[in-house]
Amino acid sequence: MKYAFQIIDVFSSTPFGGNQLAVLPEAAGISTEGMRKIAREFNFGETTFILPKNDPANTCRVRIFTPRVELDFAGHPSVGTACALVMKQHVRLSAPVRLILEENAGPVTVDVAHRNGGFHGTLTLSGKIEAPTGAPSPAELAAVLSVEPAEVNQVFLAGAGVPFCFAQLTSNEVVDRAAMNRAAWAATLSRAWSPHIFFAGDLRDGGKLYARMWAPALGIEEDPATGAACAALVGVMASKHDFGGTAYRLSIQQGVSMGRRSEIEAEARKSGSVVTSVSVGGAAANIASGEIEVPPSALVS
Q: 236, 158 in Cβ contact below 8 A?
């Protein structure tokens, strides 16, 4: 049986940048194991499958798969899927369109608008940020990244739906120079609260952040753009007691060393001492569409 698909580059306004996403807009009838196999076949960071909604108030149900596992939530697949659905309508938007995606983690809101001649999606989450203690030491992270301990300023854990280990490094040059030490990763992070590591330079509010992300446990050696990590990062930075502002913003550049430059805008809003919402946004470019032949063994029996 043939199923239609779209390929979207997310967090890039131009083709062949950003983070690739395959979207199957009418995936009813494909089994869970079939979805896993299709995600492995595309072999992008994530593939999404759009299914009939359970709640009439929502837009659709979405399941998200990496080449190795199913995710309850992820940033670039949510933004890209919403943009793909709006692109399919072939209409020019006079105002933003709000979509509510039913993901395993719960409803996810994405606003899609026309901006600079293309499509732009903004994902908004509640301000609930997990920030457990027990992060690896800077020396342990330096070993994972193959850099000097003095080049790691701080390490902390945080998540907004997906857990991450964050490392702030001393410069963009160190970020580029990092190379994974698999033995050190296995010893330090493979069984940690988060085995996924997002590392970057300057974390000043309003600044430009140069970042990379590795998630070998998900089958992603390096990710060109990680919306969920950016959401968690601005959320945890805004929640710090010494941040007295009402909004913490970062412009994140990721995927540069991979040749897939991504541009991500992230913001956390704060009322008093409480983070009330986090948002992550960026452009999306339509790359290709076609059909994939799905064998009977991959369908619901």
A: yes
